[in-house]
TrEMBL record:
Record's protein name: Uncharacterized protein
A matching Pfam family: DCP1
Organism for this UniProt entry: Rotaria socialis
GO CC terms in record: P-body
A GO biological-process term: mRNA processing
Length: 161
């Protein structure tokens, strides 16, 4: 899961400016940085292990978005159908071909959505829909991923291309 580093940085700056009773600057900011880094490293290891349980060839998490929802385009109805998939999206590297993929670990169902990225896939992010990524797989199915954070969508889209 993604942590907002800017809020940690702001908190650490204000804590780091506190003075100890002896008049010297407190070292709390370094301790807080180390604690948050250790927690983040541990969380990253847990997330990687969880993904590797589904695909043992995953070697590294490249990027992630904290909260997304998956939709599938139903051509007959000409509408988007929301899937029972909502959770954290992880973009990852693999040790063998195909070398990239992404997965969504759902928090609303037991299902994990795994998509290996192939050169035949098409990704489309339209600025008019800031938080929506559309992509087409080689069998013709069209999916959409809605990002709760508008800033995650363009960044993850670039990662997937």
């Amino acid at each position: 899961m993604t942590t907002n580093n800017s809020s940690f940085a702001n908190t650490n700056r204000s804590v780091g400016n506190l003075m100890a009773p002896n008049g010297q600057a407190s070292s709390n900011s370094n301790e807080n940085n180390n604690n948050s880094n250790n927690e983040e490293d541990q969380l990253n290891r847990i997330n990687l292990q969880t993904l590797q349980n589904r695909d043992p060839y995953i070697s590294k998490i490249v990027d992630q978005a904290q909260r997304v929802c998956v939709y599938k385009f139903v051509a007959e109805k000409r509408e988007w159908e929301r899937k029972d998939l909502e959770g954290t999206l992880f973009v990852y590297e693999r040790l063998c071909k195909p070398y990239h993929g992404f997965a969504i670990l759902s928090t609303v169902s037991r299902e994990t959505f795994v998509q290996i990225i192939k050169s035949s896939m098409e990704f489309k992010h339209t600025p008019a829909y800031e938080a929506f990524l559309q992509y087409k797989v080689d069998v013709g199915d069209i999916y959409g991923i809605w990002f709760i954070s508008k800033t995650d969508c363009p960044r993850v889209t670039e990662c997937l291309k």
